[in-house]
Description:
Layout: E1 5-8, H1 32-43, E2 46-50, H2 55-64, E3 69-72, E4 77-80, E5 83-86, H3 99-105, H4 108-115, E6 120-122, E7 134-138, H5 142-151, E8 157-164, E9 177-183, H6 188-199, E10 206-210, H7 213-216, E11 224-227, H8 230-234, H9 236-241, E12 248-250, H10 255-269
Parallel strand pairs: 1-2, 1-10, 2-3, 10-11, 11-12
Antiparallel strand pairs: 3-4, 4-5, 6-7, 7-9, 8-9
Helix pairs in contact: 1-10
Amino acid sequence: MALRCVYTDLDGTLLGRGSSLFRDAEGAFSLAQARGLEACHRAGAEVVIMSGRREPQVHEAARLMGQTSYIYEAGCAFAIDGETTLLTGDLVPDEDGTVYEKIEQRGIPKLLFERFEGRLEYHSPWHHGRVLSHLFRGKVDVGEANEVLVAAGHDDLRLLDNGAIGREMPAVDGPTHAYHLVPQMVSKANAVAAHARARGYDPAGCIAVGDSVEDIEVAAAVGRLFVVANGPEHDPGLREALPAWDNVTVTEGSMGDGFYEAVVSALVERR
């Protein structure tokens, strides 16, 4: 089956050091990502960003790559040719406020900050301007955090781990992670599946590339998922999750080199 679509995370995956499209993991100039995108274009495969970033950022990144659809705020919504589809269930923006504002009004971020004092904070300045989710950084047990939410009566929400970011915090040993507070049904996997249905893609004709525990769940919605080498290298939780999936491959290359490797591998296999 021909390769129809490549779903890719941005930071730590498609983008290299400094979140640059033209830098590798060490910061050297690289055309690996561009070559991977070119290979997709020549093969007629769509490239869809699946990012935790807010919509304007993801829209601009997709535009620069010549793509017309993308997934943003960790799967809260996707856009195709200018039309947006929300995936947040009953929790939607209305006259009472955005989803972000409604979550804040319920005091949920404060609850989590108090429970994980010193280990969780807003991922400033990138938490500003969000509409559908809250963005944090730190190092916490996601299972424990979600138990806290349930115990406080907020079982319509969940905290998800979107991967290591390496931003230092005084009370945290090792790499910090990016966390998203989202409606319970939200995930990159659900967004990928919804996008594929909207486009009419057979999941077997799609691959995904990522670097986090949240990304690896997308394996359930595609034929094959590639984890770039820097993901498990920096995240023990991701290493532990790998054996549960029989359609997941860890690339030899990191970040953009891994993305290029994933695309070429998928295209070669389908000849």
